[in-house]
Amino acid sequence: MTDVKTYRSYRGLPTLAGLASIEDAAKPGLSVEACVARLKRYHYAFMRLHEIFTARITAEPIYELKTAFAHHAYLCAEHVAALRQRIGEMREPPLGLEEVPHEALAIFFDEILAAPTTAALLLGLYEKALPALDAALQRHMLDTNPLTDAPSNRVLRFARLELGDMIDFGRRAIECLVADKAFADHREWLAHLNGLLAQSGAIDGAARALIGEKPGRRFSATAYVYDRVPNRDERFQDVWNQGVNAESFLYNPELPAKPKTLMMLYKRLREIDVPEMMASIIAETKGKTWDYYRDMSRQLWDEARHAMMGEVGFVALGVDWTKARITVNWSHRLNTECTPIERHAVLYFIEQGLMTKTGKRYEWEVGVESGIPLIATIQDYDWADEVLHAQLGRLWYIPVIGEWKKALEYGDQCWSRILSNWQAVKDQGLTQHANWWPDIYVQACQAWGEKPDAAALAFSETYEGARADLKGVTGSA
Ligand SMILES: [Fe+2]
Ligand SMILES: [Fe+2]
Description:
The chain has 477 residues and is mainly alpha-helical. It has helices spanning 22-25, 32-55, 63-88, 103-113, 118-143, 150-177, 180-185, 187-199, 246-250, 257-270, 273-284, 290-316, 329-337, 340-353, 360-370, 373-396, 398-401, 404-417, 422-427, 437-448, 454-457. It has two domains: 25-221, Ferritin, CATH 1.20.1260.10; 246-457, Heme Oxygenase, Chain A. The protein is built from 21 helices and no strands. The structure holds fe (ii) ion (2 copies). One fe (ii) ion (FE2) is lined by residues 303, 351, 386, 389, 477.
């Protein structure tokens, strides 16, 4: 007679398609009902995390955190989608997914969303929320039957892989940014977060919920309000400067390809304004299907990557990018002067423009012609991403307005309503529109060991009088 310990597979082959040992699979594990109850709570946690990461992109000044939040928001959006699909497979109509599983858990995430400083936000997210979620997924994989619930385990395994990366980033960010004093100042609040988790029976609800006093609020005592005004860290100087018309340089057939790569890198890095703006659309557009938020978050993350491609390119070419003026004009104006659908309309209008002959293909061709392989790589993928974004616009923007032509016209209208503020920001003393271009170009020429091209060096065209539309102030997206 054999039992789970002595049973042997054919010639000692791995058992159960490599999932588990017979012994592990012979333990009953979670019921479908218990499993779904937990999955719904992971789903809720990832949804709230997506909300928090997205909402905090715009006003967060530190560029490395902005881009990381863009990344982590996107990863959370993907895990929400995967969990929704899995829950829908388990005799559960995809209902009840928007329900709040426990009041204390809701307050736990409200508290982090409302964290008043970057330090508190980082501690709440990366010291509390993400590790608590990861612990819940780990426990699920131990508690559930590895054979009967293999599809859930697969989803959770992928999620844990990325949760681990996020926690790792966050802990390193805390080491760099959060002083011991700030840590100490938040000790009571962090203990409060632990208390909320205990009250809700942990993220998964599997621990026994602490019953007793009503869960209390600290930072979220006054309801959080999304801050749509973009901020930048101190490396971003003179952020209203419109003194160098990058598009005019880039599309001038008389000018050589090599300096044009610098203008393209500038345009890429300037795209940090797109996540700042898209975060506002996502944060202020409620009640869409999850696919909308997932796709928008994917695009937002792509735009953050485009900015980072610019950063990488400048560093690789030996150029100090902080000497260029990475403006905040576009996201600031769209976020403060337009409604969410108007912002989406402008984004779509601009991205349609990138699909033309003078758009992304041209930028890639300039990259190839420059003889700098990294620039060709950057523009190649930037182009591919933009084709995807044009598709996402067709999916999520056009149907809101009606048909394509109307939707495009609406974007044009919204954008041309924003008149050039070239003179206004100058009159307000916000900028002198100084010409930063020669400094950047000379730096690159020194690194290349080349003499600057006279015509390229002399370039001094500004955005003054340029129409505040695709032909003028933009280049973003
Ligand atoms: Fe884009
Ligand atoms: Fe882009």
